[in-house]
Amino acid sequence: MKMFSRFDLGMIVAFVVVALLGIAGWWWLSGQLQTAQADAATAAGEFDTYTKKQVYLPTKSNLTTLQNNISIMTAQLDPLVASTLQSPKNGLGDIQQLDTVAWKHSLDDKVSHLNAAAATHGISVPEGFYYGFSRYLTTNPNQDATTVLERQQLAIGAIATILINAPVRSIVSVQRTYEEDPVSATAASRSGGGSVSQLDGHSIDAPGGVYTAYPFEFEFDADTESLRAVVNQLMKADYVFVIRSVMVQNEKLDSPKKSELGGMAGVNTAETSIINSSPGAVAASQPTPTVGLQYLFGDEALHVRMRIDLIDWHGIAQPAAPPQRNRGR
């Protein structure tokens, strides 16, 4: 029998190794091919999906219709903006820098007028009340600050007049942000204890300079009817007032108990059981009540703290013009 030589054995081993490598390569490549085919099928499906969607590109007639609609909307909004956001009745658009002494005299006159109106309506105010401007009881502001102070004075005067006409029962305090001070000074006053008439913070400018919001805080006592009147008149004012927050504390923290109803009605609950007796039996056993009409709720005093912003409207922001490229010659 012929024996395999060492060369023959080497060739057989090499052939087997090459065959195994070929099988492994074919198996790996077939897996990659299947993955590639699956990806191609997914892409083809997405292509079919998106090609079936209808995409409308703007045409000249569509652009004309859109521009006409914008013109109609602008024509409707312009009178509303002029009459509400920029009402000439509020006087914000006519404010100019004033002489510091003249502004102080104007403030004194307006404070005196408000206090006289409050007294006429039976509304109590603190002694020496200066409606948020107690800082200037004994001094005058810088002339550069009179424009922003006049804006605040007009807003406070309008809100205080609404409270007086409601009428509320008392005006406890009025606070305003010290716009005449830089922001750094306002922040320092918070840590060192500012004036009782100073409200923390500063005015806020809307993006694009569309408007400036001046915050105020009023603290007053009212009943339910006068509080309703205050809110209604704030919404109808010539100024744009936005109520940011309202905190209300009722003087009666608990509702009356059944056992207290007889005393409120002026009848003797020790002899007559109001709960278990008919109204006719109670009336027949009691003398005429000595008290008038009694309310279970609705007439109590409400202590209110209301944050109100004045919106000083400047106008709709215009888009910035695109930069023009300088063309060389």
**What is the fold-level CATH name, i.e. the topology of the largest domain?**
Alpha-Beta Plaits
**Structural class, from helix and strand content?**
alpha+beta
CATH class of the largest domain: Alpha Beta
What kind of sheet is the major sheet? 5 strands, antiparallel
Number of strands: 5
Q: Point out poorly predicted stretches.
A: 325-329
User: What is the number of helical segments per DSSP (H or I, 4+ residues)?
Assistant: 8
Percentage of residues in strands = 5-15%
Calculate the mean pLDDT score and round it: 79
How many domain regions? Answer: 3
Q: What percent of the residues sit in helical stretches (DSSP H or I)?
A: 40-55%
Q: Identify the overall geometry.
A: extended
Using only CA atoms, what is the Rg?
40 Å
CATH architecture of the largest domain: 2-Layer Sandwich
| CATH homology group of the largest domain | Ribosomal protein S6/Translation elongation factor EF1B
SSE order, one letter for each helix or strand: HHHHEHEEHEHHE
- Ends apart, CA distance between termini: 98 Å
